[in-house]
Amino acid sequence: MAAGSNDQSVESPHESPEGSAEDPAGRIEALRAEIRHHNDRYYRQDAPEIPDVEYDMLVRELQRLEAEHPELVTDDSPTRTVGDAPSTAFAPVTHSVPMMSLDNAFDRDELAGWANRVARGLDLDSAAAPVGYTCELKIDGVACSLRYENGRLVQAATRGNGRVGEDITANVTGIAVIPNTLANKRSGKPPAVVEVRGEIYMPIATFEALNEAQTEAGLPRYANPRNTAAGSLRQKDPSITASRGLAFWAYQLGAVEGGPSLAAHSEALDWIAELGLPVNPERRKAATIDDVAAFADRWLEHRHDLDYEIDGAVVKVDGLTRQNALGSTAKAPRWAIAYKFPPEERTTKLKAIEVSIGRTGKATPFAVLEPVFVGGSTVQMATLHNDDQVRLKDVRPGDTVIVRKAGDVIPEVLGPVLSERPKGLRRWKFPTHCPACNTELVRPEDEAHTFCVNPVCPAQRHARISHFASRGGMDIEGLGESRVALFLEHGFIADPGDIYDLPWDDIAALDGFGQTSIDNLASAIEASKGRPLANLLVGLGIRHLGPTGAELLSSHFGHIDAIMAASVEEMAAVDGVGPTIAGSVAAYFATDEARALVEKFRAAEVNLTGPEASSEPQTLEGMAIVVTGSLEGFSRNGVADAIKARGGKSPGSVSKKTTALVVGNEPGASKLSRAEELDVPILDEAAFVALLDTGELPASS
């Protein structure tokens, strides 16, 4: 859904009609109390009970009622205050320049309404006038102010209530990307005082690794990167904060003494970067509000391409003189607004907890939910991971739960809203027997997962065949889960090999199968025979073997027979495979069932041969080449193929191990910025072509 058509006109599950019309004063007080409660949970306890969108609905209702009844407005209303009172666990810090909040826009009309107010405030003819804006990503993290005196970091503080925050200096000094000493490329002399405001966040890769470790240790999974970053930042032991891999993006100046003369916010961001602080590269200047909306629409579509979470775009009037002319309300500047994206977390009712059996026999609990629109689609089921996580989260059928769906990630239940739990709800217990075949479930020692060990379990059989036909496997269009279930029910298939010997006359007798649908399915099955060997290996569903490992094995051994004949040691010796994958693959192909399946594939003339050894000289052996943007002489896949054919690797992101970054048309600013930060050589297309031929980087790189 484009940001311009963002529709969030849904009722809050916390909204009560009582008092809304007949007793506005009572409803206003109830709303203020509830919002203050959620402020405390969010800002001080780092344990919010409801998603942002539902908090925003409460605030909006309060704003509407206060606008309708101005005689009931008070100075301490949450609509006129920022954040929450700082925690007493840290020393207080008074901000020399208040850290304000931002007003929100949730759709294109509200964004246009803000632009109209800006135009009126600047005495411009209309909102279409070229005001001049700076567009930035709205990082979902923790606001922080850094104070440097004579170039040295002397204090770091949270926002708190906007006037007084918490002193977190000791913890912030352990965040690697925040410099303790500033550079100053303009004058060589650091300013006497400079305060830089920004957002501390946890990268997604760091968050996922942390949650993986939690799961393996049988500990509760963290809810989301923002809350985890906030909790990490408020550790009493700074070494724990330092170990959490937090990062920082600067977005604003506070107090400055001795700095350069700046005319625009965009200039201020450039100067902050010159001082050595990280400034998000994905920022743009925009002349009109239509340009702003285009920026937001693009990042709504690409938000999951980033290694950090964003929940919208921030738009600021660029000219500092114009900012001063517009001024601020008691809570927020009039010259800036947050354009919020659709929510990726919502609350709904947990109707039941059931267990699914996967292709390896793994028994996974999942939530059956009252349908809720979240993350761009309607969600009715969500994962609960394993028995330990259900127990640690303590979610129970009948609970109101928080559901998260981000991009293509499987929806997940984060936890219950305990304040709404009905009395008498019983804890859910993991079943002792497989729901599909009634075999006793087994949990291996030192493992977090439970398994059905019956090799002929119908649920496992269905999952294995569905996985084989899926896009990540043999990509057989038209053979989805429902058709697999139908063919299993009628005895047409028992394993993936039977897909290539279907009884078409019997299938034609089934409802819903006309000649066209049969021809389409037969053509898709025939086309799958030519898929690469790596796809076949992935489709077999061998535990621990993913697409990368499958590609490495197929490239190294060249044929499935060679893989089946290889020892564990021979497979583990392949760079990138290792003993765990090798042991799992060897154990799989040691079974009679696996070998019989391969013979079915051979009889059906399914491709069993890996890619031929490259005839290209191995000029890039041991190199990792990252490409950003489009190259005129290569397709997107062709660039990676050219690198791999010469023995190199083509990872998707820049790291310390990157040999060079190749930059084409419309490159990604984040990769370019990361390469500059790590001093990775940057090549244009001509230099890349020379590198392919010679294996040598240009002398000037």
What does this structure look like?
The protein is an alpha+beta fold and 701 residues long. The chain has five domains: 3-81, Helix hairpin bin (Helix Hairpins, Orthogonal Bundle); 93-340, D-amino Acid Aminotransferase, Chain A, domain 1 (2-Layer Sandwich); 345-429, OB fold (Dihydrolipoamide Acetyltransferase, E2P), CATH 2.40.50; 458-603, DNA polymerase, domain 1 (Orthogonal Bundle); 625-694, BRCT domain (Rossmann fold). It is 35% helix and 18% strand. It contains 24 helices and 21 strands. A hairpin with a 2-residue loop joins strand 13 and strand 14. The protein starts with 23 loop residues before the first helix and ends in a 7-residue tail after the last helix. Mean pLDDT is 88; it is low at 1-20.
How many β-strand stretches?
21
CATH architecture descriptor of the largest domain: 2-Layer Sandwich
Multimeric status of the protein: single chain
Question: Structural class from helices and strands?
Answer: alpha+beta
